[in-house]
Amino acid sequence: MENQNAMFCYQCQETMAGTGCTRTGMCGKKADTAAMQDLLIYVTKGISAVTTRLRRQKTEIPAEVNRLVTENLCMTVTDANFDTEMLADSVEKTLAARDGLIGRLSKQDGLPDAATWTGSRESFAEKAHAKDVGVMATRDDDIRSFRELITYGVKGLAVMNNRANELGKNDPDVDSFIQRALSQTLDETMTGGSLLALVMETGRYGVRGMDLLDRAQTEAFGHPAAGKISAGVGNRPAILVAGDDLHVLDQVLAQAAEQGVDVYTYSDMMPAAFYPKLKAYGNLAGNYGGAWWQQKTDFEHFNGPVIMTGADIVPPKSDLLERFFTTGTAGYPGTVHISADADGRRDFSPVIEMAKKCELPHAVDGGKIAGGYGHDQLMKLLDQMADAVRTGSVSKIFVLAGSDGRAKTRSYYTDIVKAMPDDALILTAGSLKYRFLKTDDETTVAGMPRIIDAGQLSDVYSIIQFLLALKDKLGLDNLNQLPVVYDLAWHDQKDTIVLLSLLYLDVKHMHIGPTFPAYLSKNVLDVLVKYFGIAQIKSVQEDMEAFMGASDTLIKPDMIVGDIVQTYPSLVPVMMSAGLHCIGCGVSTMETLAEACMTHGLDVYDILDILNDQLAQEGKA
Known about the structure:
By secondary structure, this protein is an alpha/beta fold.
């Protein structure tokens, strides 16, 4: 039986109707490209099953195979590669590499079909639509959901791993985990419980991957320093670099400097300007335009050539193709792809020569944007932040991180900032910042910038390190005791690994938006809600009332359980039936409702709804 749909993809937030793209991707991906990506994932899982078994027999895996697996995963991330032929090339390379490894196995029996299938390039399209390839190859909704959650988390981890590899940093344990996790998504003996454990392990390696990339970037370019970057334009020929690969940007800057050509960052590349080595280039002229999804208009106004270094490609108009270049794992048909040589060096002379012939960039903005708060810079605020939290000078710290997107509902993130009290402070990372970051914003809270930008999405790692240090400084037991609100936006698999990393760190009550991922089945989502209190964003008013405890309801998260029982005895059976069985013990006299819910694995906001609804029925609310 062949798959009924022309394609099926639901790995990003913008998937059709919130369920799945079946004819053409909302990202612009065509069905044949989606199918080739499915096949590439299939054979990548296959070679991973081989390498995982080889590692068990103490056989060393060649570095080029590790890189191949990582790069394959990066090519299938949302908006990264639209070039079907380039994807097919990678399928061929993977099959050849697998065939070179499989003979080293002491025994080959029991390998999954993905590890043994072979075929000519002409057969790829047919195989890509076979029933054992693609998302729907797993029939059980919950097992499929777990497998896809792991696969997408591993894709996000691969993006960080790839960028670290580009800078010469490798972690054999990360490579081993990526391949083992992929192989385990083919294992029919893995139950829901074992897959949930693998989800959490993916989060653990997410933190490790962020640390690897952070060390790679700071060792290569220095620690980011707080400062400002221009949002205007100059009067010299220019190149625009998009994506998130700082290694590529470094090479472009060095080669263009010799030719009198300026370089501008775009979207998630903006934080590059705060690294000392990159900032030192005299031709790093500023940041141009807005978030990645605005690129059709931004690139048109830029006038000069654009280099895409990774994901976040919006299919360009035909008149832009000639000045649209890709490199690394990015790809788009009809454009020039600049490959690296054996030493990792890329020749950007064609881009530089084109820039000299193009019109100068047209200004779309002006002023300056503040940033540069990596963990080294954040730690300089630690004592000040701790004092502000102790004294109440900072009422809440909002972690507004993640990726922006096209959905109109993302205006929520602009409006939530407007609704925050004056004594709330924001930590941000990723392109979501474009929803609320303004040029020349001098607003402060307790002597600190109100909006503190840690950098790229992977720099959530800096925020994590800072909050862990703040927890210790305040003598708290866990991150959930800090006055921190996690209000996250997601778009693709890079956001998925950030979410899983926070889950691994036992962060509770994160709000996710604009929607929950379509790949989470009802039962899998229920597990995340029950054990971690994950919630979908609601209206700005509802969420701010929950975040700040400022609603007009009678029961609030910070109320002591014993006080609730004493004041509203009619709620005792309601609380018991909801799972709060601690109401008669001594702990209830000093434990808040939020703490009690956390102990019992309940979502405090669901419990609040139940209790306040009961009081409303009694005419007390």
